[in-house]
Write a structure and sequence with these properties.
Elements: E1 5-15, E2 20-29, E3 32-37, E4 48-51, E5 56-59, E6 61-66, H1 79-88, E7 91-96, H2 107-120, E8 124-127, H3 143-148, H4 164-174, E9 181-183, H5 188-191, E10 196-197, H6 200-205, E11 209-210, H7 212-229, E12 233-235, H8 241-252, E13 257-261, H9 263-267, H10 289-300, E14 306-307, H11 316-319, H12 336-345, H13 351-358, H14 360-366, E15 384-394, E16 413-423, E17 426-430
Parallel strand pairs: 1-4, 1-5, 6-7, 7-8, 9-12, 10-11, 12-13, 13-14
Antiparallel strand pairs: 1-2, 2-3, 5-15, 15-16, 16-17
Helix pairs in contact: 4-7, 7-8, 8-10
Protein backbone atom coordinates (compact mmCIF):
# COMPACT_ATOMS: atom_id res chain seq x y z
CA UNK A 1 0.00 0.00 0.00
CA UNK A 2 1.68 3.18 -1.19
CA UNK A 3 0.65 6.40 0.52
CA UNK A 4 2.37 9.75 0.34
CA UNK A 5 1.41 10.53 3.93
CA UNK A 6 0.76 8.21 6.86
CA UNK A 7 -0.20 8.79 10.48
CA UNK A 8 0.52 6.01 12.98
CA UNK A 9 -1.58 6.72 16.04
CA UNK A 10 -1.28 5.71 19.67
CA UNK A 11 1.43 3.07 19.43
CA UNK A 12 3.99 2.17 22.07
CA UNK A 13 6.98 3.87 20.46
CA UNK A 14 10.39 2.36 21.21
CA UNK A 15 13.55 3.94 19.79
CA UNK A 16 16.66 2.96 21.77
CA UNK A 17 18.93 5.35 19.86
CA UNK A 18 16.96 8.39 21.01
CA UNK A 19 15.91 6.81 24.34
CA UNK A 20 12.29 7.10 23.30
CA UNK A 21 9.71 4.89 24.95
CA UNK A 22 6.06 5.65 25.45
CA UNK A 23 2.73 6.08 23.78
CA UNK A 24 2.79 8.41 20.81
CA UNK A 25 2.23 9.07 17.13
CA UNK A 26 4.38 9.20 13.99
CA UNK A 27 3.65 11.30 10.90
CA UNK A 28 5.25 10.20 7.64
CA UNK A 29 5.38 12.07 4.35
CA UNK A 30 7.23 11.24 1.12
CA UNK A 31 9.07 8.33 2.71
CA UNK A 32 10.48 10.25 5.67
CA UNK A 33 9.45 10.68 9.27
CA UNK A 34 8.20 14.23 9.73
CA UNK A 35 7.12 14.23 13.37
CA UNK A 36 7.25 11.91 16.38
CA UNK A 37 5.51 12.25 19.75
CA UNK A 38 2.08 13.12 21.03
CA UNK A 39 0.93 14.93 17.93
CA UNK A 40 -1.97 17.36 18.05
CA UNK A 41 -5.15 16.03 16.45
CA UNK A 42 -5.97 17.78 13.19
CA UNK A 43 -2.54 19.33 12.70
CA UNK A 44 -1.34 16.64 10.30
CA UNK A 45 -3.47 15.44 7.40
CA UNK A 46 -2.64 11.92 6.27
CA UNK A 47 -3.94 9.78 3.45
CA UNK A 48 -3.67 6.72 5.67
CA UNK A 49 -4.22 6.52 9.41
CA UNK A 50 -3.07 3.43 11.31
CA UNK A 51 -4.42 2.72 14.77
CA UNK A 52 -1.49 1.16 16.65
CA UNK A 53 -3.12 1.16 20.09
CA UNK A 54 -1.55 -1.61 22.17
CA UNK A 55 1.12 -2.37 19.56
CA UNK A 56 4.87 -1.74 19.61
CA UNK A 57 6.12 0.66 16.93
CA UNK A 58 9.89 0.68 16.40
CA UNK A 59 12.46 1.25 13.66
CA UNK A 60 12.52 -1.42 10.97
CA UNK A 61 14.76 -4.34 11.87
CA UNK A 62 18.22 -4.45 10.28
CA UNK A 63 19.91 -7.79 9.57
CA UNK A 64 23.68 -7.79 9.13
CA UNK A 65 23.89 -11.42 8.00
CA UNK A 66 21.58 -13.39 5.74
CA UNK A 67 21.64 -15.63 2.69
CA UNK A 68 19.33 -14.78 -0.20
CA UNK A 69 20.92 -17.46 -2.44
CA UNK A 70 20.44 -15.60 -5.73
CA UNK A 71 22.23 -15.85 -8.11
CA UNK A 72 22.94 -19.52 -8.49
CA UNK A 73 20.79 -21.22 -5.88
CA UNK A 74 17.29 -20.03 -6.70
CA UNK A 75 15.85 -23.41 -5.71
CA UNK A 76 16.73 -22.48 -2.10
CA UNK A 77 15.64 -18.83 -2.16
CA UNK A 78 15.33 -15.82 -4.45
CA UNK A 79 15.62 -12.11 -3.84
CA UNK A 80 11.86 -11.87 -4.21
CA UNK A 81 10.94 -14.65 -1.78
CA UNK A 82 13.74 -13.86 0.66
CA UNK A 83 12.88 -10.20 1.01
CA UNK A 84 9.17 -11.03 1.29
CA UNK A 85 10.05 -13.35 4.18
CA UNK A 86 12.25 -10.66 5.71
CA UNK A 87 9.42 -8.11 5.53
CA UNK A 88 7.10 -10.59 7.25
CA UNK A 89 9.70 -10.81 10.00
CA UNK A 90 9.83 -7.02 10.41
CA UNK A 91 13.11 -6.47 8.53
CA UNK A 92 13.49 -3.45 6.27
CA UNK A 93 17.25 -3.74 5.64
CA UNK A 94 19.22 -6.94 5.12
CA UNK A 95 22.87 -7.58 4.26
CA UNK A 96 23.29 -10.59 1.98
CA UNK A 97 26.35 -12.79 2.12
CA UNK A 98 28.48 -13.41 -0.98
CA UNK A 99 28.39 -17.23 -1.13
CA UNK A 100 26.38 -17.19 -4.34
CA UNK A 101 27.27 -18.52 -7.79
CA UNK A 102 29.08 -16.58 -9.03
CA UNK A 103 30.31 -15.25 -5.68
CA UNK A 104 30.32 -11.51 -5.07
CA UNK A 105 34.04 -11.15 -5.67
CA UNK A 106 33.96 -8.59 -8.51
CA UNK A 107 32.29 -5.26 -9.08
CA UNK A 108 30.40 -6.82 -12.02
CA UNK A 109 28.94 -9.53 -9.78
CA UNK A 110 27.80 -6.95 -7.23
CA UNK A 111 26.30 -4.77 -9.94
CA UNK A 112 24.44 -7.77 -11.32
CA UNK A 113 22.96 -8.46 -7.91
CA UNK A 114 22.02 -4.80 -7.52
CA UNK A 115 20.01 -4.97 -10.75
CA UNK A 116 18.13 -8.02 -9.48
CA UNK A 117 17.36 -6.38 -6.14
CA UNK A 118 16.18 -3.18 -7.84
CA UNK A 119 13.68 -5.30 -9.77
CA UNK A 120 12.60 -7.90 -7.22
CA UNK A 121 13.31 -6.74 -3.68
CA UNK A 122 10.63 -5.30 -1.42
CA UNK A 123 13.17 -3.92 1.07
CA UNK A 124 16.72 -2.54 1.18
CA UNK A 125 19.31 -5.18 0.27
CA UNK A 126 22.96 -4.37 0.93
CA UNK A 127 25.56 -6.77 -0.47
CA UNK A 128 28.62 -8.06 1.34
CA UNK A 129 31.64 -8.57 -0.93
CA UNK A 130 34.18 -11.38 -0.77
CA UNK A 131 37.50 -11.09 1.04
CA UNK A 132 39.24 -13.38 -1.44
CA UNK A 133 38.68 -14.34 -5.04
CA UNK A 134 36.09 -17.09 -5.36
CA UNK A 135 36.18 -17.38 -1.55
CA UNK A 136 39.20 -19.68 -1.90
CA UNK A 137 41.45 -17.93 0.62
CA UNK A 138 44.39 -17.63 -1.78
CA UNK A 139 44.39 -14.05 -3.07
CA UNK A 140 42.48 -10.94 -2.13
CA UNK A 141 39.43 -9.87 -4.10
CA UNK A 142 39.53 -6.34 -5.59
CA UNK A 143 38.40 -4.74 -2.34
CA UNK A 144 38.40 -1.11 -3.49
CA UNK A 145 36.29 -1.97 -6.56
CA UNK A 146 33.87 -3.87 -4.34
CA UNK A 147 33.69 -0.91 -1.98
CA UNK A 148 32.95 1.41 -4.91
CA UNK A 149 30.18 -0.93 -6.05
CA UNK A 150 28.40 -0.49 -2.70
CA UNK A 151 29.27 -3.41 -0.42
CA UNK A 152 28.92 -2.94 3.33
CA UNK A 153 31.85 -5.16 4.25
CA UNK A 154 34.02 -8.06 3.16
CA UNK A 155 33.49 -11.71 4.07
CA UNK A 156 34.15 -15.18 2.74
CA UNK A 157 31.30 -16.24 5.02
CA UNK A 158 31.39 -19.98 5.75
CA UNK A 159 34.93 -20.21 4.37
CA UNK A 160 37.14 -18.66 7.06
CA UNK A 161 40.40 -17.06 5.96
CA UNK A 162 42.89 -19.54 7.39
CA UNK A 163 46.02 -17.75 6.14
CA UNK A 164 46.91 -15.20 8.85
CA UNK A 165 49.12 -13.19 6.46
CA UNK A 166 46.25 -12.86 3.97
CA UNK A 167 43.82 -11.91 6.74
CA UNK A 168 46.17 -9.19 7.92
CA UNK A 169 46.45 -7.84 4.36
CA UNK A 170 42.65 -7.80 4.07
CA UNK A 171 42.37 -5.80 7.28
CA UNK A 172 45.04 -3.38 6.12
CA UNK A 173 43.32 -2.80 2.78
CA UNK A 174 39.92 -2.35 4.43
CA UNK A 175 41.12 0.19 6.99
CA UNK A 176 41.12 3.32 4.76
CA UNK A 177 37.75 2.27 3.33
CA UNK A 178 36.20 2.39 6.79
CA UNK A 179 34.11 -0.75 6.42
CA UNK A 180 34.64 -4.00 8.31
CA UNK A 181 36.08 -7.35 7.45
CA UNK A 182 33.35 -9.77 8.56
CA UNK A 183 34.79 -13.10 9.61
CA UNK A 184 33.28 -16.51 10.25
CA UNK A 185 35.69 -17.46 13.02
CA UNK A 186 36.54 -21.13 12.79
CA UNK A 187 39.83 -23.01 12.86
CA UNK A 188 38.97 -25.70 10.33
CA UNK A 189 41.84 -27.87 11.56
CA UNK A 190 40.08 -28.10 14.92
CA UNK A 191 36.53 -28.42 13.60
CA UNK A 192 37.37 -30.84 10.78
CA UNK A 193 34.54 -33.33 10.08
CA UNK A 194 32.59 -32.00 13.07
CA UNK A 195 28.81 -32.03 12.90
CA UNK A 196 27.51 -30.68 16.22
CA UNK A 197 28.88 -29.20 19.43
CA UNK A 198 31.50 -31.38 21.06
CA UNK A 199 29.99 -32.55 24.33
CA UNK A 200 27.42 -34.87 25.84
CA UNK A 201 25.10 -34.78 22.82
CA UNK A 202 27.85 -35.56 20.29
CA UNK A 203 28.92 -38.51 22.43
CA UNK A 204 25.32 -39.73 22.79
CA UNK A 205 24.58 -39.51 19.06
CA UNK A 206 27.99 -40.77 17.98
CA UNK A 207 28.61 -37.71 15.81
CA UNK A 208 31.96 -35.94 15.44
CA UNK A 209 32.04 -32.83 17.62
CA UNK A 210 33.08 -29.24 16.98
CA UNK A 211 34.85 -27.94 20.09
CA UNK A 212 34.43 -24.41 21.38
CA UNK A 213 38.15 -23.92 20.87
CA UNK A 214 37.67 -24.14 17.10
CA UNK A 215 35.83 -20.82 17.31
CA UNK A 216 37.79 -19.24 20.13
CA UNK A 217 41.26 -19.72 18.65
CA UNK A 218 40.10 -18.06 15.42
CA UNK A 219 38.42 -15.23 17.33
CA UNK A 220 41.64 -14.66 19.29
CA UNK A 221 43.83 -14.58 16.17
CA UNK A 222 41.54 -12.16 14.34
CA UNK A 223 41.27 -9.85 17.34
CA UNK A 224 45.06 -9.68 17.55
CA UNK A 225 45.28 -8.86 13.84
CA UNK A 226 42.56 -6.22 14.12
CA UNK A 227 44.35 -4.61 17.05
CA UNK A 228 47.65 -4.63 15.17
CA UNK A 229 46.25 -3.12 11.96
CA UNK A 230 43.74 -0.72 13.54
CA UNK A 231 41.13 -1.93 11.05
CA UNK A 232 37.48 -2.71 11.69
CA UNK A 233 36.65 -6.34 12.39
CA UNK A 234 33.13 -7.71 12.67
CA UNK A 235 32.78 -11.21 14.06
CA UNK A 236 29.83 -13.19 12.75
CA UNK A 237 27.56 -15.40 14.86
CA UNK A 238 29.39 -15.74 18.19
CA UNK A 239 28.39 -18.98 19.88
CA UNK A 240 30.62 -19.62 22.92
CA UNK A 241 31.19 -18.05 26.30
CA UNK A 242 34.92 -17.92 25.61
CA UNK A 243 34.36 -15.89 22.43
CA UNK A 244 32.26 -13.37 24.33
CA UNK A 245 35.03 -12.93 26.89
CA UNK A 246 37.65 -12.45 24.19
CA UNK A 247 35.62 -9.74 22.45
CA UNK A 248 34.86 -8.04 25.76
CA UNK A 249 38.54 -7.78 26.63
CA UNK A 250 39.46 -6.62 23.12
CA UNK A 251 36.92 -3.82 23.28
CA UNK A 252 38.37 -2.69 26.60
CA UNK A 253 41.77 -2.46 24.88
CA UNK A 254 40.31 -0.26 22.14
CA UNK A 255 40.25 -2.82 19.34
CA UNK A 256 37.80 -1.80 16.61
CA UNK A 257 35.66 -4.89 16.84
CA UNK A 258 31.92 -5.44 16.62
CA UNK A 259 30.05 -8.72 16.71
CA UNK A 260 26.69 -10.39 16.29
CA UNK A 261 24.74 -13.34 17.67
CA UNK A 262 21.89 -15.29 16.07
CA UNK A 263 18.40 -15.98 17.45
CA UNK A 264 19.09 -19.73 17.51
CA UNK A 265 22.31 -19.40 19.49
CA UNK A 266 20.37 -17.34 22.03
CA UNK A 267 17.41 -19.67 22.36
CA UNK A 268 18.39 -23.25 21.46
CA UNK A 269 20.95 -25.64 22.91
CA UNK A 270 22.65 -28.71 21.45
CA UNK A 271 19.67 -30.71 22.75
CA UNK A 272 17.70 -29.49 19.71
CA UNK A 273 19.59 -31.97 17.51
CA UNK A 274 18.37 -34.96 19.55
CA UNK A 275 16.89 -37.50 17.19
CA UNK A 276 19.33 -36.35 14.50
CA UNK A 277 17.16 -33.36 13.58
CA UNK A 278 18.97 -31.83 10.61
CA UNK A 279 16.85 -28.68 10.90
CA UNK A 280 18.86 -27.88 14.04
CA UNK A 281 22.19 -28.41 12.30
CA UNK A 282 23.99 -25.07 12.01
CA UNK A 283 27.54 -23.75 11.81
CA UNK A 284 28.72 -22.76 14.35
CA UNK A 285 26.75 -25.46 16.13
CA UNK A 286 24.20 -24.94 18.86
CA UNK A 287 26.04 -24.95 22.18
CA UNK A 288 25.09 -25.23 25.89
CA UNK A 289 22.97 -23.35 28.41
CA UNK A 290 26.14 -21.87 29.88
CA UNK A 291 27.03 -20.47 26.46
CA UNK A 292 23.55 -19.00 26.07
CA UNK A 293 23.86 -17.32 29.47
CA UNK A 294 27.19 -15.79 28.43
CA UNK A 295 25.76 -14.58 25.11
CA UNK A 296 22.83 -12.95 26.88
CA UNK A 297 25.19 -11.26 29.31
CA UNK A 298 27.19 -10.04 26.32
CA UNK A 299 24.06 -8.49 24.87
CA UNK A 300 23.19 -6.79 28.14
CA UNK A 301 26.64 -5.32 28.78
CA UNK A 302 27.17 -4.14 25.21
CA UNK A 303 29.85 -6.62 24.20
CA UNK A 304 27.54 -7.94 21.48
CA UNK A 305 26.41 -5.20 19.10
CA UNK A 306 23.68 -6.84 17.06
CA UNK A 307 21.38 -9.79 16.60
CA UNK A 308 21.64 -11.16 13.05
CA UNK A 309 19.50 -13.96 11.66
CA UNK A 310 22.03 -15.85 9.53
CA UNK A 311 18.89 -16.77 7.55
CA UNK A 312 20.03 -19.86 5.62
CA UNK A 313 17.25 -21.45 3.57
CA UNK A 314 17.71 -24.92 2.10
CA UNK A 315 15.53 -27.21 0.04
CA UNK A 316 13.57 -30.04 1.65
CA UNK A 317 15.65 -32.67 -0.14
CA UNK A 318 18.90 -31.20 1.15
CA UNK A 319 17.77 -31.30 4.76
CA UNK A 320 16.17 -34.75 4.46
CA UNK A 321 19.50 -36.54 4.23
CA UNK A 322 21.51 -38.35 6.84
CA UNK A 323 22.90 -35.90 9.37
CA UNK A 324 26.45 -35.81 8.07
CA UNK A 325 25.35 -34.95 4.53
CA UNK A 326 22.72 -32.32 5.33
CA UNK A 327 23.88 -28.70 4.97
CA UNK A 328 23.87 -26.45 8.04
CA UNK A 329 21.40 -23.59 8.34
CA UNK A 330 18.02 -22.40 9.59
CA UNK A 331 15.34 -20.37 7.81
CA UNK A 332 15.13 -17.57 10.33
CA UNK A 333 13.52 -14.35 9.09
CA UNK A 334 9.92 -15.10 10.03
CA UNK A 335 10.51 -16.72 13.43
CA UNK A 336 13.18 -14.29 14.66
CA UNK A 337 10.98 -11.90 16.64
CA UNK A 338 8.76 -14.55 18.21
CA UNK A 339 11.75 -16.64 19.29
CA UNK A 340 13.54 -13.66 20.82
CA UNK A 341 10.50 -12.32 22.64
CA UNK A 342 10.60 -15.55 24.62
CA UNK A 343 13.74 -14.14 26.25
CA UNK A 344 11.83 -10.98 27.15
CA UNK A 345 8.93 -13.00 28.57
CA UNK A 346 11.43 -14.98 30.66
CA UNK A 347 12.95 -11.78 32.03
CA UNK A 348 16.38 -12.51 30.55
CA UNK A 349 16.54 -9.28 28.53
CA UNK A 350 14.26 -6.26 28.35
CA UNK A 351 12.31 -5.09 25.32
CA UNK A 352 14.46 -2.00 24.77
CA UNK A 353 17.65 -4.05 24.68
CA UNK A 354 16.15 -6.50 22.22
CA UNK A 355 15.02 -3.74 19.87
CA UNK A 356 18.39 -2.01 20.22
CA UNK A 357 20.16 -5.12 18.93
CA UNK A 358 17.75 -5.40 15.99
CA UNK A 359 17.81 -1.73 14.97
CA UNK A 360 20.30 0.92 16.04
CA UNK A 361 22.96 -1.65 17.00
CA UNK A 362 23.33 -3.04 13.48
CA UNK A 363 22.81 0.47 12.02
CA UNK A 364 25.92 1.65 13.87
CA UNK A 365 27.91 -1.21 12.36
CA UNK A 366 26.76 -0.14 8.88
CA UNK A 367 27.43 3.55 9.45
CA UNK A 368 25.68 6.26 7.46
CA UNK A 369 26.56 5.15 3.91
CA UNK A 370 23.12 3.63 3.40
CA UNK A 371 20.90 6.39 4.72
CA UNK A 372 19.50 7.45 8.05
CA UNK A 373 18.06 4.19 9.33
CA UNK A 374 17.57 2.56 12.70
CA UNK A 375 15.72 5.32 14.59
CA UNK A 376 12.39 7.14 14.90
CA UNK A 377 13.34 10.75 14.30
CA UNK A 378 12.42 13.63 12.05
CA UNK A 379 14.16 13.42 8.69
CA UNK A 380 15.01 9.75 9.03
CA UNK A 381 13.90 7.04 6.63
CA UNK A 382 10.36 5.87 7.37
CA UNK A 383 11.31 2.22 7.86
CA UNK A 384 9.15 0.90 10.68
CA UNK A 385 8.04 -2.35 12.25
CA UNK A 386 4.75 -2.67 14.12
CA UNK A 387 4.26 -5.78 16.21
CA UNK A 388 1.97 -7.24 18.81
CA UNK A 389 4.06 -8.67 21.67
CA UNK A 390 1.05 -10.57 23.06
CA UNK A 391 -0.17 -12.37 19.92
CA UNK A 392 0.48 -16.11 19.95
CA UNK A 393 0.99 -18.11 16.75
CA UNK A 394 2.17 -21.54 15.68
CA UNK A 395 5.13 -22.05 13.37
CA UNK A 396 3.88 -23.86 10.26
CA UNK A 397 6.80 -24.29 7.85
CA UNK A 398 4.59 -24.73 4.78
CA UNK A 399 3.12 -21.29 5.37
CA UNK A 400 6.43 -19.46 5.45
CA UNK A 401 7.07 -16.94 2.67
CA UNK A 402 10.66 -18.17 2.40
CA UNK A 403 11.34 -21.07 0.05
CA UNK A 404 13.34 -22.53 2.92
CA UNK A 405 11.07 -24.37 5.33
CA UNK A 406 14.01 -25.68 7.35
CA UNK A 407 13.27 -24.68 10.93
CA UNK A 408 13.61 -26.61 14.21
CA UNK A 409 10.67 -24.54 15.51
CA UNK A 410 8.01 -26.35 13.47
CA UNK A 411 4.88 -26.78 15.59
CA UNK A 412 6.15 -24.45 18.31
CA UNK A 413 3.92 -21.67 19.60
CA UNK A 414 5.64 -18.30 19.71
CA UNK A 415 4.48 -15.09 21.35
CA UNK A 416 5.00 -11.97 19.27
CA UNK A 417 3.68 -11.31 15.78
CA UNK A 418 4.72 -8.70 13.22
CA UNK A 419 1.56 -6.87 12.21
CA UNK A 420 2.93 -4.42 9.68
CA UNK A 421 6.22 -3.48 8.05
CA UNK A 422 6.73 -0.13 6.36
CA UNK A 423 9.65 0.59 4.05
CA UNK A 424 10.10 4.20 2.98
CA UNK A 425 6.62 4.92 4.30
CA UNK A 426 5.04 2.21 2.14
CA UNK A 427 3.27 -0.79 3.62
CA UNK A 428 5.19 -3.77 2.29
CA UNK A 429 3.70 -6.32 4.67
CA UNK A 430 0.50 -6.46 6.65
CA UNK A 431 -0.68 -9.50 8.59
CA UNK A 432 -3.83 -10.86 6.92
CA UNK A 433 -5.67 -10.80 10.24
CA UNK A 434 -5.50 -7.01 10.15
CA UNK A 435 -6.78 -6.26 6.65
CA UNK A 436 -9.12 -3.60 7.98
CA UNK A 437 -6.71 -0.81 8.85
CA UNK A 438 -9.32 0.99 10.91
CA UNK A 439 -9.61 -2.04 13.18
CA UNK A 440 -6.00 -2.32 14.25
CA UNK A 441 -6.83 -1.39 17.83
CA UNK A 442 -7.00 -3.76 20.80
CA UNK A 443 -10.30 -5.35 19.96
CA UNK A 444 -9.33 -8.21 17.65
CA UNK A 445 -5.63 -8.91 17.97
CA UNK A 446 -5.12 -11.86 20.26
CA UNK A 447 -6.16 -14.86 18.20
CA UNK A 448 -3.83 -17.79 18.61
Amino acid sequence: MASKSVMICGGNLIDPLNKLEGKGDIFIREGQIQAVGKLAAGRYKAELSIDAEGLVVCPGFIDLHCHLRQPGYEYKETIKTGTAAAARGGFTTVCCMPNTSPPLDTAEAVQGLTKITARDSSIRVIPIGCITRNRKGRELAPMYELFESGVAGFSDDGSPVSDAWLMMRALEYSRPLGIPVIEHCEDINLSRDGQINEGSMSYRLGLPGIPATAEETAVSRNLILAGYTGARLHIAHLSTSGSVDLVRQAKKKGTKVTCEVTPHHLTLTEDAVAGYDTNAKVNPPLRTEADIDALIEGIKDGTIDAIATDHAPHSLNEKQQEFGLAPPGISNFETCLGALLGLVDAGKIDMNTLIDKLTCGPAKVLGNRFGRIGALAKGWQADLTIFDPASVWEVEPDRLASLGHNTPLAGKRLRGRVIMTLYGGKTIYRDPQYENMANMGKGNRHAG
